User: Which sequence fits this backbone?
């Protein structure tokens, strides 16, 4: 009982911090100019929240399925596919083409490409090798490496101007988010998150391992397939919205394991999302008010997330010793 | 009743189970014995749909195992596996609570708490219920896992070497719990046991397996004799009788 109450209190505190930061972000230096602030920052804050939620939930689910807390969903090559898609579009069609120019088309098509890729890969895999998650990850890793090499090859051949355009598009950025895209993303993310949240207790059971979960009556292979598709969906949305952010979900997931010390997904999801949103907001405020847009949010996120990743890796090594 | 008809399984070219047919009596404690690599674990995995048969059928209460709805089967049959690793930190009580998942999908009601507490009492872990499982000794963890299977409260219980990691005291205690489940609660239990003497002392029926084939099956008293055990394990043994139980001496 006491343990539970403590955890709930932690979640509440985290939520409180998040709300304070949201408030701060919206009001700092606003000088009462509300209509301007709301339209400018409101748009950004929604995108920030969306991306935080997507990456945190996707990573936690991914960790549970793979029973490994160091992996990130990047390992299955979703963002590599996104980069490849953007590259090949700019390479084969000129940058005047509709797909390269129109954000909606781009969003839609790259999202579709990622979904198709994951559907084919997982659908095939869960049919052929049920239960062999690591083989699946390995295949994803190899395909990802292959795509990355192809991407580099194409980028080398590219016209310098188009390469610059591409590069600016591939850096994660929260400053150039389209309002229309945010709307579509919300439409995709909410049902997905809802599904995952409603199945949080089945996810808890997955923690016990495949055999134990089957013994408790969970249709593990079907469930995993669905979860994998949802992870790709979430990763695809987040990537298409702001570009690849690698360590954000990793940071959110691992910090919430550390803070909340529970296996219950309900708490991990809530607390983890609160943390990630707070972290991203803090980062964005620093960008806007300390660095005055001299650097991008993705640099801050990847720096902190990457450092934490190294820290976790080194700590794991000590445990093995 | 569980009925196995011509069950076979291969991994690659290696045959693990070869045309095995057997019956498992309801309301009895059946021990599965045999040398290492005889296919005992595989057999248990197949009965509990953790592993698929290559050919042959397994009927549980008349329904083929792969035709059973997985959620319903979890209310009828539970299994304790040989190796269990956990990636997360949880307490004994939380672990045991997972046993109620087939019934309530994770939401515990009054009755669940009752069953969980009863299971904890049965394995003698009620006082340590809030301890984290990564702080437990091998024996305590084994008992916690058994409590989880008990909480699942199923008609059939499959145990894959439940005596692993248990000292003599807890081995005997566990066998008594198992006996009680059969005699008092009318459960049907199938267990893989390495110590043939435990099988002899506590089980009703034996299924002896060797090289993926059924070697012998039937009531304990009919199976256990020096000749059968010797050829089953390829080891010289002596069987003596003491207080109506057969004891196998092998060293």
Assistant:
């Amino acid at each position: 009982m006491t343990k539970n109450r403590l955890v709930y209190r932690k979640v509440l505190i985290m939520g409180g911090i998040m709300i304070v930061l949201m408030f701060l972000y919206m009001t700092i230096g606003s000088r009462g100019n509300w209509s301007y602030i709301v339209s400018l920052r409101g748009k950004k804050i929604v995108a920030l929240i969306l991306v935080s939620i997507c990456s945190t939930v996707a990573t936690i689910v991914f960790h549970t399925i793979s029973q490994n807390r160091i992996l990130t969903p990047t390992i299955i090559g979703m963002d590599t596919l996104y980069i490849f898609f953007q590259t090949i579009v700019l390479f084969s069609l000129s940058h005047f083409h509709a797909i390269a120019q129109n954000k909606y088309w781009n969003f839609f098509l790259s999202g579709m490409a990622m979904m198709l890729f994951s559907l084919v890969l997982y659908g095939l895999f869960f049919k052929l090798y049920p239960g062999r998650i690591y083989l699946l990850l390995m295949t994803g890793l190899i395909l990802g490496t292959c795509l990355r090499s192809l991407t580099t090859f194409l980028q080398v051949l590219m016209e310098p101007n188009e390469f610059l355009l591409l590069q600016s598009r591939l850096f994660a950025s929260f400053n150039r988010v389209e309002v229309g895209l945010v709307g579509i993303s919300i439409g995709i993310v909410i049902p997905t998150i809802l599904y995952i949240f409603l199945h949080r207790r089945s996810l808890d059971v997955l923690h016990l391992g495949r055999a134990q979960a089957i013994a408790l009556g969970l249709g593990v292979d079907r469930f995993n397939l669905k979860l994998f598709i949802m992870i790709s969906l979430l990763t695809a949305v987040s990537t298409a919205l702001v570009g690849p952010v690698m360590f954000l979900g990793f940071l959110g997931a691992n910090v919430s394991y550390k803070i909340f010390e529970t296996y219950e997904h309900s708490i991990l999801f809530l607390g983890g999302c609160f943390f990630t949103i707070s972290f991203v907001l803090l980062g964005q405020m620093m960008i806007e008010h300390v660095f005055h847009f001299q650097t991008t949010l993705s640099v801050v996120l990847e720096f902190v997330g990457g450092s934490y990743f190294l820290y976790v890796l080194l700590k794991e090594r000590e445990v093995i010793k | 009743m569980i009925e196995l008809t011509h069950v076979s399984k291969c991994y690659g070219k290696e045959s693990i189970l070869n045309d095995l047919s057997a019956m498992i009596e309801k309301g009895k404690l059946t021990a599965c014995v045999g040398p290492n690599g005889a296919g005992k674990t595989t057999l248990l995995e197949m009965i509990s749909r953790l592993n698929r048969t290559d050919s042959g059928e397994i009927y549980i209460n008349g329904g083929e195992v792969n035709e059973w709805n997985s959620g319903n089967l979890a209310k009828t049959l539970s299994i304790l596996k040989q190796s269990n690793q956990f990636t997360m930190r949880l307490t004994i009580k939380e672990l045991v609570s997972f046993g109620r998942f087939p019934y309530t999908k994770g939401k515990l009601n009054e009755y669940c708490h009752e069953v969980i507490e009863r299971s904890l009492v049965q394995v003698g872990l009620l006082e340590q219920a809030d301890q984290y499982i990564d702080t437990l000794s091998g024996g305590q963890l084994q008992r916690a896992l058994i409590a989880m299977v008990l909480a699942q409260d199923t008609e059939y219980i499959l145990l894959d070497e439940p005596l692993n990691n248990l000292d003599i005291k807890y081995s005997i205690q566990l066998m008594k719990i198992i006996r009680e489940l059969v005699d008092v609660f009318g459960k049907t239990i199938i267990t893989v046991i390495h110590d043939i003497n435990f099988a002899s002392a506590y089980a009703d029926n034996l299924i002896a397996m060797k090289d993926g084939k059924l070697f012998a099956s039937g009531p304990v008293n009919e199976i256990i004799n020096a000749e059968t055990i010797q050829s089953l394990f390829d080891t010289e043994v002596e069987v003596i009788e003491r207080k109506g139980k057969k004891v196998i001496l092998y060293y």
Summary: Residues 34-66 of chain A form the longest helix (33 residues).
